[in-house]
Amino acid sequence: MALGIERRALLTAGAGALALAAPEATAQIWPFGRREAPIPVQHQGHSGHTGAGAAAPETTLTGEEDAVVNALMNCDAAGQTCLSHCLALLAQGDSSMAACARAVREMLGVCAAARTLMYSGSALAAAQLAVCRDACGACRVACEPHISHHAQCAACAGACAQAVAAIDALMS
User: Fold this and answer.
1) Is the pTM of this model over 0.85?
2) Pick the CATH number of 63-171 from 1.20.1270.360, 1.10.630.10, 3.30.930.10, 3.30.200.20
């Protein structure tokens, strides 16, 4: 066993000495302020362009679309708080919060995707908003039994109701 430790120590010390002795290795180990890293061969000659091409046109949202995005952001904030509260209660053994936590988690994922698609001007945004509307409705229903004794659930249910109303106004 002692031979294995000695061998390992010897190999580690030798590798460290070689790394410090080579100027290239030293520059790679401590590159701060030493010199500019060399450009790999496969990337030489590409300094004339950034590879990004023309900038994509910026998507501007209408007033109703902006209202939906804001409602979904409020829903996200309230949902994150509600989910954290549900998980804390579940950890204490309160299994009555399981359906609420599940519905909030689903709503958070679906609505985040809807916001992303809206910001990018995607043709899929309308379909995702329809799913988002359903997820917000289900989340509101799951939170309702708890709104009288959990402020987090009340806030989440209210935010989901506002999101559904904003989506309905946009899609009508």
Assistant:
1) no
2) 1.20.1270.360
